[in-house]
Amino acid sequence: MEALWLTVLGVLTVGYFALAGFDYGSGLLLALPRRDVSSRRIPFTLPHAHTRDETSRLVNPFFLGNEVWLVAAIGVLFAAFPRLEGELLSGAHSTFTLLLAGLVLFMAAVQLRLWWWLVFMGALMVSVGWGLFLAHLLEAPWPVAFVMPVLFAVHGWVFQNRCWKLFPVTAALCALPIPLAFSSIDVTGLMAHSDTLSLLAWVAIPIIPLVVVLQWSIVAISSR
Amino acid sequence: MSAVDLARLQFATTTSFHFLFVLLTLGLVTLLVVMQTRFTITGLPVHERMTRFWGRIYVINYALGIVTGIVMEFQFGLNWSGLSTYAGDVFGAPLALETLIAFFLESTFLGLWIFGWGKLNRWLHLALLYLTALTAFASAFWIMAANGFLQHPVGYRVDGNVLRLDDFGALLTNPTFTSALTHVVFASITVGGVFLTGVSAYHFIKRTPEADFFRRSLRMGVVTTALATPALIGAGFAQFPVIARYQPGKSEAAQWIGAPLGFMIIIGMVLTAVSWLTLPLLFKDAVIRMRFPLYLMVIGIPLPFVAAIFGWMFREIGRQPWLIYGLLRTEDAVSHVDASQILLSLVVFTFLFVVLTCVDWALIARAVRRGPDVAPAPVSPMVVTL
Predict the structure, then answer these.
(1) Which segments cross the bilayer (chain A) (predicted)?
(2) Is B343 left (phi over 0), alpha (psi -120 to 50) or beta?
(3) A218 at the B interface (CB within 8 A)?
(4) Residue B155 lies in a domain
(5) Residues in Cβ contact with B205 at an 8 Å cutoff, skipping those fewer than 6 apart
(6) Is the Cβ pair B84, A60 closer than 8 Å?
(7) Which one of B108, B356, B382 has the shortest CB-CB distance to A108?
(8) Residue A108 is nearest to which of B87, B359, B381, comparing CB atoms?
(9) Residues B294-336: tens digit of each pLDDT
(10) Cβ <8 Å between A72 and B103
(11) Predicted structure pTM score
């Protein structure tokens, strides 16, 4: 049971970070100077750099995608690891305040599409927030926090430039740090009773592959 | 203020904002189901345009509402770690089922619906909307089951100093759950009806050239409100015997607790009376030619939202001082964090939620003003295809 629920939680977390990486990464890249379509090529800009408008259009189909994985992961954390959830989240209270504030800001700014720097700010707050959480889990000094924004930005760059060979590599780089750091926690005694776990297993196991297939179809349809 | 007071205030604020989004989402998706079903069967362009116009508003509201829900979910762990530690085995089950069965699937079906517009078989596309609506109400189902447990805990056994899940079925037949769920469902449908009526009335005030489009929408709004409100009030009053039996102290929990309850009941009665009075006036568009009622319809848009917040105030404040009635006191469930940290998050989230609600309002107002026929000009990246 323990291994099963750690796997479920791991899959959901990996799913979130793999999807969120290029979302927030693309947001972070908005700060880079942009090449105007009509102007000549400026050195040090991206070879296939998009306009800011194009960027948000490109990220479009993935947009709802990442947050549902986060919601599902926290839901599973609550029900399957009830003695861990509260301590884990309240132990990093201000980090999550920053992260969630960034999440709200990012969503509002993308929808509003008025000021690109608000989108950038939102993405920065979310990615630094995850970085701080990583540092908190590893008990590492705070500069470790910048690992996450850097990884997200690289992943965003790979996505925007359609380097599909590199894509799984950067996706894994974004996805793995937090689940790996999390795996250092000893969960014995923190999990729910098997009465709760077996009830939830009936639901979680069929639904996750179903969502993967459906989300994949969204991407396939929207690129058609 | 102490950490408990701040955490309670934060919960009340974020839940209230979140619920505004939830109400409109549930109300609109129900009406969209009717519109798109009509389009799929008849193939008439007016039904397609209605689905598009109201669907665009629905998607804007959904996308912005998601983030309020995420903050809500994190808040349990951030501020109320005592709840998960003590009752996570029981309370967590419906909560996790909501995230997995309902929200996880709902968003995915909705994504397919948005991006599949014009690209999928139209019966398949309709089926996606049905699934979105079904999972949206499943969301309400599980959340109310979780809330019902807090009002009247059932289906648990005490094991040392924690609760264990004993009888999951008992959670789903909990009387404080079933009666409140019906009330919430009809409240959201009422919101949908009042919203459709008010927005259509606005267009008639502005002398819209889209008379047929908004006549249909206005009729649909009025009829929906007239059908939903009696059921809403019935389900509301049906809760009093349940409260008298399981939470006898509810109306004495705070001195002023009767006030929000009273206002909610008055708003419910007014909406029922007004919608039934309007029904005969739909004949030969009398209500539109009179013009005066149109202004009332626009002013009426916030009423069901306000009533819903009052209703929740009565339900939640009336449960105090208990978080889980009779088992866990609110003050014992608050996380061991500094009051200053809770204050910081309270200030940040209240500010951001006010901004978010204004953005939602501004984007919806823009979509409303542009009317049914907007050429590609995307309202937001999410709805570029609608």
Answers:
(1) 6-32, 62-82, 88-107, 114-134, 140-159, 166-185, 197-221
(2) alpha
(3) yes
(4) no
(5) B291, B294, B295, B298
(6) no
(7) B356
(8) B359
(9) 999 999 999 999 999 999 999 999 888 899 998 999 999 898 8
(10) yes
(11) 0.90
Enclosing domain of residue B284:
174-330
Give the gap in angstroms from C-alpha A138 to the nearest C-alpha of chain B: 20
Q: What is the pLDDT of residue B385?
A: 36
Which has the higher per-residue pLDDT, B18 or A23? B18
pLDDT at A198: 86
User: How large is the average pLDDT for residues A27-50?
Assistant: 52
Interface confidence (ipTM) of the complex: 0.87
> In this complex, which of A56, A72, A77 lies closest to B104 when CB atoms are compared?
A72
pLDDT, tens digit, 9 for 90 and up, residues B222-257: 999 999 999 999 999 999 999 989 988 888 878 888
Average pLDDT value for residue range B156-170: 89
Which of B330, B326, B145, B148 lies closest to B248, judged by CA?
B326
- How many structural domains comprise chain B? 1
pLDDT-derived band at B287 (thresholds 50, 70, 90) equals: confident
Position B210 in a domain: yes
In a domain, B265, yes or no: yes
pLDDT tops 80 at residue B159: yes
Is the pLDDT confidence value at A188 over 80? no
Q: Is the pLDDT of residue B377 over 70?
A: no
Three-class DSSP labels, chain B: CCHHHHHHHHHHHHHHHHHHHHHHHHHHHHHHHHHHHHHHHHCCHHHHHHHHHHHHHHHHHHHHHHHHHHHHHHHHHHHCHHHHHHHHHHHHHHHHHHHHHHHHHHHHHHHHHHHCCCCCCHHHHHHHHHHHHHHHHHHHHHHHHHHHHHHCCCCEEEECCEEEECCHHHHHCCHHHHHHHHHHHHHHHHHHHHHHHHHHHHHHHCCCCCHHHHHHHHHHHHHHHHHHHHHHHHHHHCHHHHHHHHCCCHHHCCCCCHHHHHHHHHHHHHHHHHHHHHHHHCHHHHHHHHCHHHHHHHHCCHHHHHHHHHHHHHHHHCCCCEEECCCEEHHHHCCCCCHHHHHHHHHHHHHHHHHHHHHHHHHHHHHHHHCCCCCCCCCCHHHCCC
